[in-house]
Design a protein that fits this description.
heterotetramer; A: 155 residues; alpha+beta; Aldehyde Oxidoreductase, domain 3; 4-stranded mixed sheet; 4-stranded antiparallel sheet; 8 strands; 33% helix; globular; B: 83 residues; Ubiquitin-like (UB roll); 23% strand
Chain lengths: 155, 83, 155, 83
């Protein structure tokens, strides 16, 4: 039986290296059967969006992601877990969030990464605002009811 | 205690944080929202859609029923759109 | 509306670079919201397994993976898809299979990658045999009923 | 037509491929398995667990009911364990 992972969680302004973060989870070990990496990217919305400004609650964000990660680790016996969430201005095409998970079996890795993304969407204290092509400040991104439904299916 | 505001709630209130001193009868998060809304038109407008306002006490999500006694930091914000 | 991806599919003896394959899906575009990479690795089974020998039906493997990929693309509007499956001797800790998928929304990317792994397990003509630590030839890996059940849930 | 064998089925048959010429009455994959099994003890042993044997005609999976007429290549193998 392998020890359950202590998750690595970072909230940062700078970009991250998804490949290096993911690869680090398997370095020096051969007990992992499934390694999954999910990256959320800033879409340009058909060429209308220049960037997203991501506001966050700095004192709470890491603590809340840690709670979400703890919930995932209580459900699935992950062998490694890294979550990185950026804030600040992220240009179209840029990386916003990384969830990388390692597990013995693929089902655990898929479920945990999917769960984590659903819960980060609805629980992590980040708010996105659009900066439009041409320089205008767009609207705050509306929460999607689909995101609440996605999170609710894990209950 | 300190009150924090984020995203469009911050913009409507016109500040990101402030010290507040609610009177003894203000027991829950919901009471605090009502008390803030009664201060002036700015707060009334910011908090008008009560059902969408989320709150956190000392960096953890709470419902509008949560007691505020002992809270050092109460944050108000719209539904989150991270991830 | 973005064109649905033409999948990149390779069946090869040599190792692959999961990060480069995944990153290639998003290069030069900003319409992708979700980028997922799944890597299946050779587990050492508590230190007892030295390597897996993967036999495959060379004339059929790529064609069958293309059919599975076509099924996934018919279900989810992926913006990019790369599948690489290795054969031959793979040492414990080594990479066996890659599924990398890009989509507008995360739900599509997660579902497609999960579906693809479930179907590769049960439809792609590969057979694993264990080489044990100490040099003995182990048994052919038994198919898991859990794999059939995982594939069946997509029907 | 060419018959191919993989994994433990290949080991039991003792070869990875061979030319076969089944008589006219052998119409389906299931018929072919029965015909091969009747050849000798080696084939009978290889194909004894009929329900687990999978088949492909010209590089596509088929059921035991599939007709073999026109097939150039028929492969037999155990359940797959790739991925």
């Amino acid at each position: 039986m392998n020890a359950v992972a202590k998750p690595i969680i970072r909230v940062q302004r700078e970009d991250f290296n998804a490949a290096a973060e993911t690869e680090a989870l398997r370095q020096g070990r051969a007990d992992i059967g499934a390694l999954i990496s999910f990256v959320g990217l800033c879409r340009d919305e058909g060429g209308t969006l220049e960037a997203l400004e991501i506001e966050h609650y700095g004192a709470m964000a890491k603590a809340e992601i840690e709670r979400v990660a703890g919930d995932a680790l209580a459900r699935w016996p992950l062998l490694g877990l890294t979550i990185v969430h950026r804030y600040g201005l992220i240009e179209a095409g840029g990386r916003i969030v990384l969830v990388a998970a390692a597990a013995t079996h693929r089902g655990e890795a898929f479920a945990a990464a999917n769960f984590l993304m659903d819960y980060l969407k609805t629980r992590a204290p980040f708010w996105k605002r659009a900066h439009l092509v041409g320089g205008a400040l767009g609207d705050w991104v509306e929460p999607k009811s689909a995101d609440d439904e996605a999170a609710a299916r894990w209950n | 205690m300190k009150a924090l505001y984020f995203a469009w709630l911050r913009e409507r209130v016109g500040k990101s944080e402030e010290e507040i001193a609610p009177p003894a009868g203000v027991a829950t998060v919901g009471d605090l929202i009502a008390w803030l809304s009664a201060k002036d038109e700015t707060y009334a407008h910011a908090f008008e859609k009560k059902s969408v306002i989320r709150a956190a006490i000392d960096h953890a999500h709470v419902s509008h029923d949560a007691k505020i006694a002992g809270a050092r930091e109460i944050a108000f914000f719209p539904p989150m759109t991270g991830g």
